[in-house]
Every structure is written in C-alpha cells, then in structure tokens.
Design goal:
single chain, 607 residues, alpha/beta, ABC transporter transmembrane region fold, Rossmann fold, 3 domains, six-stranded mixed β-sheet, four-stranded antiparallel β-sheet, 61% helix
C-alpha cells in the first residue's frame, strides 16, 4: 500500500503560497507569535476539559472506584469535589474560549494586513507588466485574481486554516495523553489514522483539481462579463444581447459543473471519514470497557479516552469538511503567486532624466512582431520645440513608434535618444515625466472633472492652474455649463461626456503636465467639425514651445505642422516641410496614402 502523503504533499499549492508570502509575514511577527501563544494555551485548556468529568465519575458517582482521586482531592467530600469539578470545567471552557478568541483575533489581524499588503503589491506589479502581457491577459480574469482570489485567501485563513491548525495542536497533545493513559488502547484508537490520511490525500487531489478548474472557469467567466459590460453600447446597438448572454451562460454552466464535482467529492470524503471515526469509536468502546472490567482503567479514564479520541480525529474530519474551501484557496493562491512571479518585462533604467530639452533622435530603429517587421531601419532627428506630424496608412507602425517613445516596449534594433541619451538608461518614471501623452481614446476616471485634469500634475494642482489648463484646452466653457462645474462627476470611461469633451479634458490634463514633449495619437478621430476645430485650436496652443509628435490621418491638420514624417511599410518614405511631402505623395490631390497599399498589423495591438 502506498505511503500516506505528508501535509505538504497533500496541499502543495498552499505550501508554495505560504513560502511565497513568507516575506510579508515579517512585519506581523508579533501578532503571529501572540496568536500562536494563545493557540497553545487554548490547546492546554482543551486537554483539561474532560478531567473534571473523570473525577466526578470516579469519585462522586458511587461505585468500586470511589476514592481514587489523587492527593488532596481524595480527602474532599463528594459534593465538595463535585463543586470543584464544576468550577474547574467552567474555568477550562471559559479560558479556552478566551484564548481561542485571542488567537483568532491575532491571526485574523495578521492575515488581513498581510493579504492587504499582497493585494497592494499585486496591483503595483500589474501596472509594471509590459503591454505584451496586458494585451494577452483578460481584464476580468486579472480583476478576479486581484479582488476575488486574494479575498478567498483572506477568508480561508480564518474560516478553514485556523480551525485545522488549532486541531492539529490538540491532536498532538491528546495522542500524548492517550498513550500515557493506556498505550494499547491508544494504538487501537489511532489505528484508522493512516487509512484516514491516505483516503483524505487521495480524495484531496481530486478536490483540488476540481477547484483549480473551477477558479479557471470563474476567471474566464469574469473575462467574458468584463468584455460584455465594457462593450454594452455596441452589443445593444447590434442586437447581440442573446448571443453574448449565451456565451456567458455556457461559461457559467462550466464553472457550475466543476463546483458541483468538487462539492460531491468533498461530501463523499466527509461521510467516509465519519464512518471510519464511528468504527474506531466502537473499537475503543469495546476494548476500553473490557479494560474497565479488568481493572486496568477507571470509568473516568474511559470517558477521557473516548473524549480525546473523538477530538483526535477532528483535524481529519475538519480537513474533509473544509477540503473544498482549502482547495479553492490553494488554487486562488497559486493564481496570485503566478501573477506575482510574472516577469516585469522591460528592465528599468538607473538614471533620473531630470529636465530634458525635448530633442528626439532615432538611429536605425527596428521592431518586429512575430511573422513580420513593423518598423525597419527608422532614423530621424527632431530638434527640441519642433512640431512634427507623422502620417501614413493604418498599420504602418505609427502607434508603435509612439509606444517606443513612451518606452512601453523596446526596439529590437537601433536606439531612441532624448537629448542625445538612450532612453533605456533612464528610469521609466523619470522618462515619462518628460512626455504629455494624449491617446485617441483618452482614459477618464470616475471622479470629478477637476480631479481628472489634476492627474496631469500627478493628482495635485491648484484650482487656478486647473482652470488655466482647461482654458488652454478650450474646455472651460463646457465645464462651467455643467451643473457642478469643475466638481461635476465623470461617469466610468467618461460616458456622460461627448468625444470632443473627453478629448479636451485630456488636452487640459496634458497642458497641466510640465513636460517638454507632447505626444498625440489620432486626437481628432471621430469628432464633429465643431469639436474638431476646438481640439485642433487647443493642440496648436499646447504645442507652443514643446517638441510635438502628432500621429494623424487628417492631412489638413498635418499641414499645419513644421514638418511631416510619412511612414509606409514600417519605413520613412518622406520627410520634410508639409507642402513638399504632401505634394510629392500625390501631386494632383496631395493625398499621401496609396489606395491599395497593404497594411501590417499595428505593433501596439499585439504587445
């Protein structure tokens, strides 16, 4: 018969999680030590609880065993001993309850604080992971790991792991006392333990596998829900409600199936343990009663023995009871650790960029996406303060170039320099302080307009500075027209604002950021003529005195730049004054984009 698995082998996931979280425990060693001390004290009180009953049965209840109490207890009258035993029982139970409360409180405080630290570090780590990771990962699944999986670990630490740890200590103490009372009867009582542990280990593997699958299914279901909620306008507009609901229902049913399987296995394990415990109790009762009849044990000894034996099996019964919960915690912990151990990708630089002038130079930049080159041998030199428009067909590498400037990815070949220094030498934080970035779809947060604008200055700005930035971005008028002005709340993703209003708030945020470089990625796409004119006017004011890179398909707007770089097939095919570049591209119409030119997949969409 195979050897029973150890605790570590039975719960490999939790073992790995505990090892990974060990550094987080150091600040809370005092709480953990206090909880452990209280737990040991509660264990001693648990061991003492049956003894008052033993003396009552042996000394107070009439019979052949009266007068067997040791020492001074033998001199007490039966009623005095009864009163003392009752008080001792109340004291033991009361002290055990107190110590259990203190242990639970200490461990709960330590666990909650520890896992709060883990969640905070996990969120920071997620923000440091490269775009390649975030493009592959599903937002719903990442949210599930950050909120649901960490929350499950925190809950399980108190509701499942804590009782099992306490009962393991009780198990060790009670086995010792049972061996002291009667070694032979103790061996009879403990004989089922190897079988119980083997059964628990084997069933536990199947329960853990079902729980892992269920957590994975729940992560996929969360991803499906997040996608649907984020695209609700499109879903309703295209009448896709039933189709999307069917996808979610299918994911939900798969999760339910794994959950039912885990519950069925857990319930079967618990009932099997109950049967074995019942059989062991019957054996102890049989052999113990014969020991009483033979005079080897007192009736009180048998009561203590049976009480201890039932408690001895409690850790195994608790493991059966909490196996599904522990398995889910193990799966959740593994998912958290997997994310924490994901490499952050781009190495950070070591130098602080300080305050740069804004000169940008590219030397033979090359960037590849699996299957094709996105950028190839790209070289240019942009002096500080110049306004450069970057045009070309979709998928030709314009947004990839923006990602390289922001160092959201690194080139496979060549290098990019700011003021003559390789941007990889700078810390990412100090590099990005040099750039005000306005994307095609600006990210607005669910807070007030003023706070959204203030984020351009790191979240802190005076009201006068916020208003000046809004005026520069042509946003002041529509902001004042809202009921609460600058204090007006912005809905999630800015859904209570028009596209032009969202873009102008993003420009105001950029205006508030004291950066020498302004990077704009298709800032006027999808705007009505009035909004487009307001945004273009704001951009021209914002670009004054800054090195500006404008990625655009709007040739009329590009013509207002100092210079145009035209990309095609990942290369620069034209570089010069707007009139020259546009006329050379299409002498008849000034149109720079060939009608049938093949477009590569944009690199930023695959990062």
């Amino acid at each position: 018969m195979p050897r029973p698995e150890t605790v570590r082998e039975a719960l490999p996931g939790l073992g790995r999680v505990l090892r990974r979280f060990a550094p987080y425990m150091r600040p809370y060693r005092g709480l953990i030590l206090g909880g452990g001390t209280a737990l040991l004290a509660a264990t001693l009180m648990k061991l003492a609880e049956p003894w008052p009953l033993k003396y009552v049965i042996d000394r107070v209840v009439p019979g052949d065993f009266a007068g067997t109490a040791p020492g001074r207890l033998a001199a007490l009258a039966p009623l005095e001993l009864l009163a003392l035993a009752a008080l001792a029982l109340v004291a033991a139970v009361g002290l055990r309850a107190l110590f259990d409360y203190l242990a639970t409180l200490c461990f709960a405080l330590a666990g909650n604080r520890l896992l709060t630290d883990v969640r905070a570090d996990l969120f920071r780590h997620l923000q440091r992971l490269p775009l390649a990771f975030h493009t592959r990962a599903r937002t719903g699944d990442m949210t599930m790991r950050l909120i649901g999986d960490v929350g499950m670990l925190r809950e399980t630490a108190v509701t499942a792991a804590m009782p099992i740890l306490a009962n393991l200590l009780v198990l060790a103490g009670m086995i010792g006392v049972m061996l002291w009372l009667d070694p032979r009867l103790a061996l009879v009582a403990l004989a089922p333990l190897p079988l119980l542990w083997l059964l628990t280990a084997r069933m536990g593997r199947r329960i853990r596998e079902a729980s892992r699958n269920q957590r994975r299914r729940e992560g996929a279901m969360a991803g499906t829900a997040a996608e649907a909620l984020a695209g609700m306008r499109t879903i309703q507009a295209l009448g896709l409600e039933e189709r999307v609901a069917a996808r979610f229902a299918a994911a939900n049913a798969r999760s339910l199936g794994e959950g039912v399987r885990g519950t069925r296995l857990s319930a079967g394990l618990e009932r099997s343990v109950d049967l074995l415990v019942g059989a062991a109790t019957a054996l102890v009762l049989w052999f113990g009663a014969r020991g009483v009849l033979d005079g080897r044990l007192t009736p009180g000894d048998l009561i203590v023995f049976i009480t201890y034996m039932k408690n001895t099996f409690r850790p195994v019964r608790d493991y059966a009871k909490y196996s599904a919960r522990l398995a889910k915690a193990s799966a959740a912990g593994e998912r958290v650790v997997e994310l924490l151990d994901t490499e952050a990708g781009l190495p950070d630089g070591t130098r602080d960029a300080g305050r740069l002038g804004g000169a940008i130079r590219a030397e033979g930049l090359g960037f590849r996406h699996p299957g094709h080159a996105v950028l190839s041998n790209l070289s240019f030199d942009i002096p500080a303060g110049q306004f450069v428009a970057i045009i070309g067909p979709s998928g030709t590498g314009k947004s990839t170039l923006a990602s390289l400037v922001l160092r959201l990815c690194d080139p496979d070949e060549g290098r990019l320099l700011l003021d003559g220094q390789d941007i990889r030498d700078f810390t990412r934080a100090s590099l990005r302080r040099q750039i005000s970035y306005v994307p095609q779809e600006p990210l607005l947060f669910h807070t007030s307009i003023s706070e959204n604008i203030a984020m351009g200055a790191g979240g802190t700005a005076e009201p006068g500075e916020i208003e000046a930035a809004a005026r520069l971005a042509n946003a002041h008028g529509f902001i004042l027209a809202r009921p609460d002005g600058y204090a007006s709340p912005v809905a999630e993703r800015g859904d209570n604002l028009s596209a032009g209003q969202r873009q102008r708030i993003a420009l105001a945020r950029a205006a508030l950021r004291p950066a020498p470089i302004l990077l704009l990625d298709e800032p006027t796409v999808g705007l009505d003529p009035a909004s487009e004119a307001a945004v273009q006017s704001a951009i021209l004011r914002l670009a004054a005195g800054r090195t500006t890179l404008l990625i655009t398909h709007d040739l009329a707007f590009a013509a207002r730049a100092d210079r145009i770089l035209r990309l095609s097939g990942g290369r620069i095919v034209a570089d010069g004054p707007p009139a020259t570049v546009l006329r050379a591209a299409d002498p008849a119409h000034g149109h720079p984009e060939p009608a049938n030119e093949p477009a590569n997949e944009p690199a930023h969409a695959a990062l």
